[in-house]
Amino acid sequence: MFFKRTPQFQPLYQMPVRIATDRDNPYLNSMTLLSSDRLLLADLNNQSVKLVDVVQDKVLYQLKVNDSPSSVCSLPRNRAAVALPNKQIIHILDCDNQLSIVNTIKVQGACLGLDYSNGHLIVLYSFGKIEILNMHGGVVWQNNLEISTRYTYNHLSVMTECNVTSIFVVDYSSSRIHRLDENLQVRQVYPVPNDTEKWSLLAVGENQLLVSDFNGRLWQLDTTMGRWALLTMCPQYAWSLAFCHDRHILYYGGRSGVVKIYAIS
User: Fold this and answer.
1) Are 92 and 81 in contact (CB under 8 A)?
2) Pick from 28, 19, 18: which is nearest to 239 by CA?
3) Highest mean pLDDT (candidates 108-112, 129-133, 144-148, 259-263)
4) Distance CA 55, CA 147 (A)
5) Do 154 and 240 form a contact (C-beta atoms < 8 A)?
6) Inter-residue contact 44 to 27 (CB < 8 Å)
7) Contact 43, 17 (CB under 8 A)
8) Average of per-residue pLDDT values in the chain
């Protein structure tokens, strides 16, 4: 894994994700990797999710969801979940060459953060409550974090190491990242660098987080040491991030209507 040392970032190309049915410029506020060659994007402006072949640089399918999707996450068996905060629902999608809704889960508020781990959905609401749900929508655990989640981009990321699950949640009001255990209890708090304003995060394994801040800086946070390292400067802030371990590729999405692609060595 490249996170054991300082990685080198090589810009490769930009992948356009605007297609004929779009009315507005894509606002890519969330993305998730389904496989090494398939990416699912949430397009806030066009109220849709898009299935992208990253090898062919081609949008394979676009599904209109009639709401502004806040977050997407991958599920087993080539499925995914997308949160629709205004409707207070989560759609479960089949992602086999096209996108179709196979189930809908009603949730108890505007869901801004969404992830999956060990057969459960982790849901973060706009008012700071977090829940672990089974795949039928039943609440397994819940906690009120009293944090600020007023922005619509990656607030939440989950990492499992040696059968230990850690849930990372951002708190913009206190400029901190919280690490929660699988029972949603806060176990550690990481202050972000002093001049860092607004950020999105992605857990990438081996106790490492990638954090993009509003100034276009990409940081690495070692969650065991609580140590920050500045990795690179990017042209713009990442509203969403995804990383492919097999291909050592970082996908970097924003409001420009393209996904920027970086090779990592």
Assistant:
1) yes
2) 28
3) 129-133
4) 39
5) yes
6) yes
7) yes
8) 89
pTM: 0.93
Distance CA 240, CA 138 (A): 28
Q: Which two tokens stand for residue 265?
A: 């060595």
The full set of domain ranges for the chain reads 2-264
Write down the number of H helices and E strands in the chain.
0, 24
Tokens 């500045």 sit on residue: 230
**Gap between the terminal Cα atoms of the chain:** 10
Beta partners for 157?
168
Of 37, 47, 34, 48, the closest CA to residue 15 belongs to 37
Give the tokens for residue 51: 């299935």
The token duo for 31 is 């993305």
Q: Which residues make Cβ contacts (< 8 Å) with residue 169, sequence separation at least 6?
A: 113, 124, 130, 145, 147, 155, 156, 177, 178, 180
**DSSP code of residue 153:** S
CATH architecture of 2-264: 6 Propeller (2.120)
Rounded CA-CA distance 186/128 in Å is 13
Tracing tokens 């919280």 back to the chain, one arrives at 178
The DSSP bridge partners found for residue 189 are 178
How far is it, in rounded angstroms, from Cα 30 to Cα 151?
12
Token readout for 90 is 């989560």
Q: Residue 128: helix, strand or coil by DSSP?
A: coil
pLDDT tier, 5 (very low <50, low <70, confident <90, very high otherwise): low
Does residue 261 contact residue 248 with C-beta atoms inside 8 Å? Answer: no
- DSSP code of 239? S
